[in-house]
Amino acid sequence: MVSRMAEKERFVSLAEATDEVEVAITRVALLHLSFSKTLVEEFVEKNGKELVIRSILEYGKRVGERTKRGLPDLPKYGVHGEWKDEKLYDCVLAKIFHEYGEEDVGCLYCYVDVAKSMAVDPENKVIHKDCAACGDYCCTFEQLPTTKKERADFKNMDRNWRNVDPRLIQGIKPKSSTKPKKR
Asked: Is the model's pTM score more than 0.90?
């Protein structure tokens, strides 16, 4: 039998657990920025960004395949703030991309959402209507059917697949002097 002291050490508060997940997600954001920046510098911007997007496509496929097998996608806490009115607030990844002023390559990470959705169901995609990593105040998503071309581009990892999410193609928005009300 486990002693009471050892039992107490096994449990952490929800706040502490959330903070610890946020630390890990911050590290993921920094890793993404580091790899992306290196690729863009090494292979010039256009080619480097294409490599980043292809890498995220591969990553999204892997996440989607695991999700399809019933494995978890994201931690329940610590990745973002709340979901309210079909809006996602306080994305930790977006905060880090903004903190480093590298939204142009940071927002490419968001291709993971459409890639994992297509890995689960190639007939449908989840795209961004708004994207915090691109400078929007929050993230909102829309599920749409895919086209035959999008499915072929996805399967073949074609560079034209990047056009699958119009909000991400638009890229970062210029900084606004006013923010909309959060809630």
From this structure: no
